[in-house]
């Protein structure tokens, strides 16, 4: 594709087959590859290959690392059967992401969009050493040239293990889609579904969804169309932030240690403490779940929520965990942005803020509450 290709390139690969034949386009099935030249070494390191299903129903797609835990792809890739609805939560089929450094990581969660063919999938462990791609903030103009990348089928290969790229021109746009056409013989094929469509700045403007697949290996020779539909992503930045926010480490801005409830104490009433941060440990990860008045903060390991009991509203009262009940206001926390970065975490009942005193910066120090004053860094948390 364009600058990367010494010869005419073709985006091919497995477009995620979703049993729909929308008016003129064959929908992509999970797995899309660009049947153009291989991407130059080190180009598009954020590109991810997704392997879905087992030997009996295996397929592949492409995705893009957009956060150390999250990969953006097409929701249709994750359907249990082509064309079926993709629910949020655990993937219906075993899914593994292979990163550009060769590391394979299990996918543990799917967060699909309901208005377009896009989804975020959560990795079991965070990615280090690979910079995520950024989302564009404006739709590309009609006639703009974009680069697509994918691990899908090419003109001559069924299952390529290298990333390929291709050049596409924008024909038109709707509120949620881009209609594009391959330049020359470039085309999206099976396996390229879910892969990124990139602008000249290397930002994601779309997620590849479905294609005519003209010229892809296995497509009838009579099919020559290289048109495709991609899902717009330029208006998804807030959604990405919201999804990314739901599973997070909570790090004290002064001690640089993270809130946790030890896996050895999963019972009600166990104290919340701080510990050296390592997001590979699930007892340090929290799900921030919106409820009326704020958020519940649920431990990813033991499934219980942080609370300061309404019986102990005073300064110094401990932050503990308890079975989650969104109707209990003492489990509801308000996240208030602080100038300079970070948040105050204020309890809805006591109106006091969670902190670890500057006097106890050590490993294992308890989380307690105190009257809120965001000028004190030991009350500020990075999420």
UniProtKB/TrEMBL annotation:
Gene3D superfamilies reported for this sequence:
2.80.10.50, Trypsin-like serine proteases
Xref: PROSITE patterns: RICIN_B_LECTIN, TRYPSIN_DOM
Matching CDD domains, A to Z?
A: beta-trefoil_Ricin-like (cd00161)
Q: Which domain of life is it from?
A: Bacteria
Which InterPro entries does the entry link to?
Answer: CLIP_Serine_Protease, Peptidase_S1_PA, Peptidase_S1_PA_chymotrypsin, Peptidase_S1A, Ricin_B-like_lectins, Ricin_B_lectin, Trypsin_dom
* GO biological process terms held by the UniProt record: proteolysis
Q: Which GO terms describe its molecular function?
A: serine-type endopeptidase activity
* PANTHER family for the chain: GH08193P-RELATED (PTHR24260:SF136), PTHR24260
Q: What is this protein called?
A: Trypsin
